[in-house]
Amino acid sequence: xxxxxxxxxxxxxxxxxxxxxxxxxxxxxxxxxxxxxxxxxxxxxxxxxxxxxxxxxxxxxxxxxxxxxxxxxxxxxxxxxxxxxxxxxxxxxxxxxxxxxxxxxxxxxxxxxxxxxxxxxxxxxxxxxxxxxxxxxxxxxxxxxxxxxxxxxxxxxxxxxxxxxxxxxxxxxxxxxxxxxxxxxxxxxxxxxxxxxxxxxxxxxxxxxxxxxxxxxxxxxxxxxxxxxxxxxxxxxxxxxxxxxxxxxxxxxxxxxxxxxxxxxxxxxxxxxxxxxxxxxxxxxxxxxxxxxxxxxxxxxxxxxxxxxxxxxxxxxxxxxxxxxxxxxxxxxxxxxxxxxxxxxxxxxxxxxxxxxxxxxxxxxxx
Length: 367
Ligand code: MRU
Description:
The protein is an alpha/beta fold. The protein has 2 domains: 2-145, translation initiation factor eif-2b, domain 1 (Four Helix Bundle (Hemerythrin (Met), subunit A), Up-down Bundle), CATH 1.20.120.420; 150-355, Translation initiation factor eif-2b, domain 2 (Rossmann fold, 3-Layer(aba) Sandwich), CATH 3.40.50. Helix content is 34%, strand content 20%. The chain contains 10 helices and 18 strands. The strands form 5 sheets. Strands 8-7-6-9-12-17-18 form a 7-stranded mixed sheet, with helices on both faces. Strand 7 (194-198), helix 7 and strand 8 form a beta-alpha-beta unit. The chain is globular, with a radius of gyration of 20 Å. The two termini are 35 Å apart. The chain binds 5-S-methyl-1-O-phosphono-5-thio-D-ribulose (MRU). The site of 5-S-methyl-1-O-phosphono-5-thio-D-ribulose has 16 residues, from strand 11.
């Protein structure tokens, strides 16, 4: 999307690759909205660290980063011995896979890349195929988000008030985003609407990233505290909810997304408000049979016990908020059952969550 910093507007992708330097280029999301900076990771271990430490985050964005990281690792191998190369690629794959457990996009992206690589007969051929596969994943990610925008735009009518949770915007993908795609498409059609961004504690992706994105795109919005949505729903102030997902089960229609999504889905059901989830095909897990099996990432308690921000002098600082002697539980995601979801907005159209399995052929399921 276009980013305007100090009156200069340029188009950026969240994730890109510099083939000459064999480096993955990432927007440093921890600094936003206070500073806009692109960093380069020099090897696959640094790329995995960037995912783990959330320099880059969001399902599609870490999927693309993992695919580029796999190519980066493969391309760094010196020699012609296929057996040694395969062992090296396995280490790269496992390192990137372990960086964050809940989102399935990195695994899907790297599995596709490895399948593509297997057509190469030499190390050199496989290295080239790894990069081609990563570029292909990134291209599909953008195309899927564009298609989600086309299908989802019809849900947003003029004057509506839309709630979103966390950041499933372009910063969470290579470009455009999923939950935001219908918003950007509706805006392009000239519709005026208002977005409430859940703050999304503990890391505040709604208050920092989604609000920054919407401000950049000049979409009317306000940040609300995570516990304010029920009040707004009760007063008729929310017409529609659109969120993203880190893993959607193709067999059951259950949706893993940022912690707090389930609460919003329960509230939306209580108030008869449509609740939609927007996903590219790379977010579908066709194997898992129950939402209880989804690995839920638990992050460090410091995220809950305090907050990061910028001082009046522009210095980025962490402040302790909680009682000094208290600890915290910090699950990063929750799982929303299919019966609370009105529809899943996919690149192939909008489906009921339990229709995904029946539509699996058109949704990219391969045996
Ligand atoms: O922990 P994060 O920031 O990587 O979490 C991902 C998210 O931003 C959300 O869960 C989002 O709604 C889905 S990812 C497109």
